[in-house]
Structure formats: C-alpha cells, structure tokens
Amino acid sequence: MKRFEGKVILITGAASGLGHAAAMQIASEGAKLSLVDLNQGGLEEVKQSILSSYSEADVLLIEADCSDESAVKKYVDETVEHFGQIDGFFNNAGIEGKQDLTEEYGTDEFERVVNINLNGVFYGMKYVLKVMREQGYGSIVNTASVGGIRGVGNQSGYAASKHGVVGMTRNSGVEYGQYGISIKAIAPGAIMTPMVEGSLRQIGGDDWEAAGKEFVSVNPMKRFGKPEEVGYLVAFLLSSQADFINGAVIPIDGGQSYKY
C-alpha cells in the first residue's frame, strides 16, 4: 500500500541532500510533489531522477528564495493552484554558514543564516498552515539539527537558527493540533550531504575526508548517516501513521545528541 497515493507533498531545499532523498522516497509511495529550491538546475536533475524511476510521478518545480516572504507565499499559492491542496510539508531549506568563534562571527553572516534557516521556516509554516487549517488536516516536518538541541562549536548563527526551529515546532504543535495538523521536527546529526561536505572543507581544507573521520569519531555508531535514512524518517513522519506525533523533535544522529 502506498502511503501517499493521492497526496500532495511540498518540499523545500529539494535540489540536493535531505530534500532530494525525501522526494525520492515519497515519490516511490505515490505522492504528487511540489519541489522548491533556489537551484533550478538541481531541481531539474531531481525531477529527472524521480521520473526515471517512477514515470507516472506528478512533479511541480518552483524556483524560490525561501528567505523572501513574498517568494514563500508565491510557492505556496502556486502549489495550491496546481494541485488544489497541500497534505504534507517538508520545511527543509537551510544553510550552515561560516564557522568561527562567536566574537569573530560576522553580523551580516549571522543575519544571513537566520534569515534562511529560521525566518524561511517561519514563512513556510505561516502560509502552509493557513492552507492546512482550511483543509482541516495536514502534516509538517521542519528540519532542525543536533545543533538545535545542544551546543555546537563555532556556529553561532546555525545553532541559534536551529534552536529557533525547535521552539517554533513545539509552539505550533500546541497551537494547531486542535485543527487536525501535526507538526514535528527532525534533528539530523552528521549526514553526508553536500552541506556537511562543505562544512568539513571549511575545517579540513583539502584534507576534509580526514576531518570527517575525526568528526564521526564522537558518534556512537562511528559513521555518517545516509540521506536516504533521513528520507525514510521524513516519509513516515509525513504519513498518517505519524498523525499523533505532534510537537516532537526527533534526532536522527546515531546517538550523538545523547553522548556526553
């Protein structure tokens, strides 16, 4: 049985990494997809990957800057105009930003990271929740991070933004459960995505793979997670099987967040 047959799922940050992995998994289960990213070329590649495996898939691509409120409203409106509904929303677009001590962390960089990771998530929830409340149902999964439930060094903007995502998730879960809407967040740890590779290159330069081995050495499972492992979790959380999970933040980090 396909859990998303007849369902419309909206995914931001869909051109790579976790968004791509979730789109592939959800497409395999019959969903109609609205995929949003600033990288139009990446979106086209994801669509081709989906159609090469699931030729009957219905995929809408929308190029948008998720830190721009008017662009967010537009991608929500376009999705509803095209499909008539939004059953699930993977509110995933985000960046890591530069790494530096807090005293050296640039104000412009802090604002850039927060605008994308926190404001963008807020805008997405704001406009999708209006649609879902009118429908009387829906499910939202926000992308937080291990950095949203514990400290991470040299990432003031990222940690602040992801802690904010956790707070919004819990608060909105309290507000919207009465309307048949469940809202949760995932907190990924070291998942091997282009964003994580970029982070390792900041740390290790040309020797970034060695930096990666040191990075996962603190993980009880001693390895990176795979994007598809996150895709499986997101698909479950967006499905009706997870409707009673509301306001929760679910780590997917090999146990990293529980190790002291």
Architecture overview:
This protein is of the alpha/beta class and 260 residues long. The chain has one domain: 3-Layer(aba) Sandwich (Rossmann fold). Helix 6 crosses helix 7. A 7-stranded parallel beta sheet has the order 3-2-1-4-5-6-7, sandwiched between helices. It contains 8 helices and 7 strands. The radius of gyration is 17 Å and the shape is globular. Pfam families: adh_short_C2. Keywords: Oxidoreductase.
Would you summarize the structure shown here?
The protein has 260 residues and is of the alpha/beta class. The protein has eight helices and seven strands; from the N terminus they run E-H-E-H-E-H-E-H-E-H-E-H-H-H-E. Strand 5, helix 5 and strand 6 form a beta-alpha-beta unit.
| Low-confidence runs of at least 5 consecutive residues | none
Radius of gyration: 17 Å
Tell me about the largest β-sheet: 7 strands, parallel
Assembly state (oligomeric): single chain
The rounded distance between the terminal residues' Cα atoms is 41 Å
**CATH class category label:** Alpha Beta
Strand percentage lies at 5-15%
Computed structural class: alpha/beta
What is the residue-averaged pLDDT?
Answer: 93
CATH topology: Rossmann fold
**Into how many domains do the coordinates divide?**
1
Number of strands: 7
The coarse silhouette is globular
Helix content: 40-55%
